[in-house]
Automatic annotation (TrEMBL):
Domain Enoyl reductase (ER) per the UniProt entry, residue ranges: 10-307
The protein's name in its UniProt record: NADPH:quinone reductase-like Zn-dependent oxidoreductase
Entry GO MF terms: oxidoreductase activity
Cited InterPro entries: ADH-like_C, ER, GroES-like_sf, NAD(P)-bd_dom_sf, Zn-ADH-like_protein
């Protein structure tokens, strides 16, 4: 079968012939793959730079999830075992969920990673309550855009967003953002805006896709003055602006701060179970009903070598049609 294969860590995937996968465990199922989204996570895992990278030598198929068709014709979304960017793949039965008839393969493939990168943080780490104020740091990417829509869906009262791409940032009000902060401004201006917002409508939840310097600015803006402060749940999801920050102990002592992360390894088995039984099915239905805005660029598997590093830009997702 044809697949996107890497032969050594850090190399570009190649469109190559490789043996068909064989089901070896009861919790596995063979599917014909229809569509796979290419995400920052996939690139990081393939390069060996992600903490979940695992295998570092030998030929392997890239891609961690996708849309496939079971032998009985049922379409499902699932996590793969041994890679998914191929004509056939093995999915985990327990980490899969049906795709409704009204949702196309490409959109269905684009959604789940963004849902995991937003809904899991909002519901489980932040435990968002109705009417609370949410700050999304780095909202101009595909997952950030999904976080805006889901924060609104889950009852956020006010949504503040940050980003560097001014054109995309300006468009986020259409998705439900109430206030925009450009990270192109100087540090003093950014902190001043955040402090002004926090003084009037306390920031209850921070969903952070950037970390790095912008995280330091946000945390400094939240710093208290010795009076009672609202509880803020700060959830780190990505580190597009750097993996290390400096954090003053005065910030931790001056505010009621919960600092946590949301990603592979931090979720419990029960939370993963809810993702596949309840969260993804609900989001798939919202998308099928046209209630979520999802922008994608579709490419072919045979072009994987030329398109692997492509950045669609403007918060779009690259999806491989197979």
């Amino acid at each position: 079968m044809k697949a996107a294969v890497i032969y050594q860590v850090g190399s570009m995937p190649q469109y190559a012939e490789i043996a068909e996968p064989v089901v070896q465990q009861e919790n596995n199922v063979l599917v014909k793959v229809r569509a796979v989204a290419i995400k920052h996570l996939d690139r990081a895992v393939a390069s060996g730079k992600h903490y979940s990278s695992g295998q570092t030598s030998g030929a392997r198929i890239v891609g961690g999830d996708g849309i496939g068709v079971l032998p009985d014709g049922q379409r499902i979304y699932g996590f793969g075992v041994g890679g998914t960017l191929a004509e056939q793949a093995i999915f985990l039965k327990s980490w899969s969920t049906p795709v409704p008839d009204g949702l196309d393969d490409i959109t269905a493939a684009a959604l789940p990673n963004a849902v995991m990168g937003s809904a899991m943080a909002l519901l489980f780490r932040a435990q968002l309550q109705h009417g609370e104020t949410v700050l999304i740091n780095g909202a101009t990417g595909f997952t950030g855009k999904m976080a805006i829509q889901l924060a609104r869906h889950y009852g956020a009262g006010k949504i503040i967003v940050t980003g560097r791409n001014q054109e995309t940032l300006n468009s986020l009000t259409e998705l439900g953002a109430d206030q925009l902060i450009s990270l192109n401004e100087n540090d003093e201006a950014i902190v001043s805006q955040l402090k002004a917002i926090h003084a009037v409508t306390p920031i209850h939840v921070v969903i952070d896709y950037l970390w790095g310097h912008s995280a330091q600015l946000i945390l400094s803006a939240l710093k208290g003055s010795g009076t009672f402060s609202p509880r803020t749940r700060y959830v780190s999801i990505g580190a597009m602006s750097g993996d290390i920050i400096q954090l003053s102990s005065q910030i931790l002592r001056s505010i009621d701060l919960q600092l946590s992360g949301s990603g592979l390894g931090s979720w419990t088995k029960d939370e993963i179970g809810l993702l596949f039984r309840e969260i993804l099915p609900e989001i798939f239905q919202l998308a099928a009903a046209g209630k979520l805005k999802v922008e994608v660029i579709t490419v072919s598997l045979k072009d994987i070598e030329q398109l692997w590093e492509t950045d669609p830009g403007n918060g779009k997702r690259l999806v491989v049609s197979i």
